[in-house]
Amino acid sequence: MIHVQSLAIGAGITSVSIIVVFLAFGILNNEPELAVEPTPMIQESGPAKITINTFMENGSPILGDPNAPVTLVEFGDYQCYFCNQFFHTTEDDLFKNYVETGKVKVIFKDYTIIGPDSITAAHATHCADDQGKFWEYHDTLYDHWTGENNGWASSENLLQFARNIGLDIDEFSNCMLDSKYTSIITNSNQDAKDLGLTGTPAFFIIGPDNKITKIGGAQPYDIFERIFNSELEK
After folding, report:
1. Domain interval for residue 128
2. Taking Cα atoms as reference points, which of 23, 70, 34 lies closest to residue 234?
């Protein structure tokens, strides 16, 4: 069964909105579908204080040139159907044309909303990062996706995935048993909630002038291409 929250986001009934900010962001959800419009700056206030760290911390190591002018931040769940669809239909071309060419850097952040296996899978990627293989493990998880809450991300399978990419199994196992990265995953989930996210995947593109563009759902390549090119022209 496809998770209701991921389905709602992945179906594309979401908006793309530009949020012009510098260390203070407001996200509006009532724009027309895929409309790209500037919104007024909203000061930091209320229970959630949104800063640049909300996007940059509690996530993966940077993929790509750390000095790339544009940053792509993805909030995802490894059990999410539409996250998997994005990975297999859009991500490769985006990374080839923008990340490998030094134009865009990428950060992946956990939003583990589907089930317990979402949390253990997220934990496994951070444990793989201890051995410099976060992104290899991230890709392995999506390559082995078979559904939501059906056991494919069980502890036994996560251990086998670690073997498949050549991790030191003792080090990986100890990391998992110690729940070493619980705080990072919890904090990343809180960042997602502070940003008002209700499903996965969700993306934020940070331009060279700290303008933020939100993309909800597994949108097609041309949506990302249009925003990347617009930011790179500045």
Report:
1. 4-232
2. 70
